[in-house]
Design brief:
Strand 6 and strand 7 form a beta hairpin. By secondary structure, the protein is an alpha/beta fold. It has 3 domains: 221 residues, Glycerol-3-phosphate (1)-acyltransferase; 61 residues; 110 residues, no CATH class. Strands 1, 2, 3, 4, 5, 6, 7 and 8 form an 8-stranded mixed sheet that branches. The longest helix has 27 residues. Helix 10 packs across helix 11, helix 13 runs antiparallel to helix 17 and helix 15 runs antiparallel to helix 16.
Length: 446
């Protein structure tokens, strides 16, 4: 939220109880929420949540989350627990009155930036007042302080909005209940492929109340910068964080090739990624010229790999042809189910494919696929259920509900299986490229 601006004076007037609050219970929202959570979790082949046990009890919690995958970031965080949650989003998406009402129903508050104009920024006073009230009522307030999404394993500079709210909250009721900033890291297996993997990692909270109480600094701007540094550091420790410099692409390519296997789960894979990055940074510092030459070779190899449509998962296979055989067997067995899934889900995947093809930012692709799963697939499910019970005996119709229910997810999973199978076959017959990979000696270096 670059350019964010609010008054530093207390703005919480304790009159929020006189009007409806965004965090108030709503029966319609309560019905929809479990459905959305379920579909969000099952939009990933593997979904892991870590660190919920670190959250303090009887405290006011403000969550700072890295932002890398558009709306899916909010959806996966929402699905981590059943607790009430209120989000804050950039104010310009509230311009349309109808959209604004929908966003309010979804418990999202606007936060305007200087680029939105002085008049818009003045509306932040009301948003901040509501945000402080949310925190006061011990409802989690979730923010993306980077201000915009970016599909990279790094962090943008955090904007000041989240720290304004934390300090205002502490000023108003910190003496009665401690205020915490909770870092939350989200890690995806792939930013652009639906049904990849997702891990949400809650980190060690920052006790804002104790920090301010024990600080000798009176300048609020300095306090916010100190809190920003602390939150940035803790956020970066929760994900596969790579310095955003000229060597980012080469570093990430090495990390992928080294740690593609998911043995031990997503959290352990993230730790292995971080260890590889540490070794790369040490190598870069100790032997800068050799590192520069290696990075050049890695990028050259990566370009050839992509040009030949070979997945990085294939480079981790010692016997790619053998690996492709069992995938081929699964593909043959699953082909009839895939064909049926393709036909019955056409109402969902056709518009999704059309919309994805027109996206300027491909990062929105997963959100579009999820929208098909959430909004259109239920129609397919209802229509398919009616057709089953109208044409088959009840016991066969009941049995048919199982493959029907999972047909949308299977449609994507089958395509991923075939993609990897074809990639393994290509890799098996690219002897020259495999020799180039072996010549990199990544396992020996890192």
């Amino acid at each position: 939220m670059q350019g964010f601006s609010v008054t530093s004076q207390p703005i919480f007037h304790w009159n929020m109880a006189k009007k409806s609050k965004i965090q108030d219970s709503n029966w319609f929202y309560s019905i929809l929420r479990p459905i959305v959570d379920f579909k969000a979790r099952h939009s990933y082949r593997r979904f892991e949540v870590h660190g919920l046990n670190k959250l303090p009890k009887d405290a006011a919690l403000i969550y700072g989350i890295n932002h890398s995958n558009t709306l899916m970031d909010a959806l996966v965080v929402l699905a981590t627990s059943r607790h009430k949650k209120v989000f804050m989003a950039r104010g310009d998406i509230f311009a349309n009155p109808t959209i604004a009402k929908i966003l309010k129903f979804l418990r999202i508050l606007p936060l305007f930036r200087i680029r939105n104009g002085v008049a818009a920024v003045k509306q932040n006073t009301d948003s901040i007042e509501q945000a402080v009230d949310v925190v006061h009522d011990q409802v989690g307030l979730y923010m993306f302080p980077e201000g915009r999404h970016r599909t990279k394993h790094s962090l943008l500079q955090l904007s000041k909005g989240i720290f304004h709210i934390a300090i205002d909250s502490n000023r108003e009721f910190g003496q009665d209940r401690p205020v915490y900033l909770v870092p939350v890291g989200i890690e995806y297996g792939d930013y652009f492929r639906f049904r990849s993997t997702c891990m949400v990692n809650f980190g060690e909270p920052i006790n804002v109340t104790d920090f301010i109480k024990n600080s000798t600094e009176e300048n609020e701007a300095v306090l916010m910068n100190q809190l920003r540094a602390m939150l940035s550091e803790r956020l970066s420790s929760l994900i596969t964080w790579i310095p955003d410099d000229e060597d980012y692409d080469a570093t990430w390519e090495i990390v992928k090739m080294k740690n593609e296997k998911r043995v031990g789960g997503l959290y352990k894979k993230m730790l292995r990624n971080r260890e590889t990055i540490r070794k790369i940074q040490e190598y870069k510092a100790a032997q800068p010229e050799e590192a520069k030459a290696l990075f050049s070779k890695v990028l050259d190899f990566a370009n050839k790999r992509v040009k030949n449509k070979i997945s990085v998962t294939s480079t981790a296979k010692r016997r790619p042809l053998l690996n492709s055989l069992w995938k081929l067997l699964l593909a043959v067995i699953g082909l009839p189910y895939f064909i049926v899934s393709t036909v019955i889900n056409a109402l969902a995947w056709v518009p999704v494919a059309i919309i994805k093809g027109k996206l300027k930012d491909p990062a929105w692709g997963n959100t579009v696929c999820f929208s098909g799963k959430l909004l259109v697939f239920p129609l397919v499910l209802v229509g398919g259920t009616i057709a089953l019970f109208c044409t088959l005996p009840w016991y066969w119709a009941l049995a048919g509900l199982v493959p029907l229910t999972y047909s949308y997810d299977f449609w994507y999973d089958y395509q991923e299986l075939v993609r990897r199978m074809v990639s393994d076959i290509r890799w098996a017959f690219k002897g020259k490229l495999r020799k180039e990979y072996q010549a990199l000696k990544l396992n020996e270096l890192f």
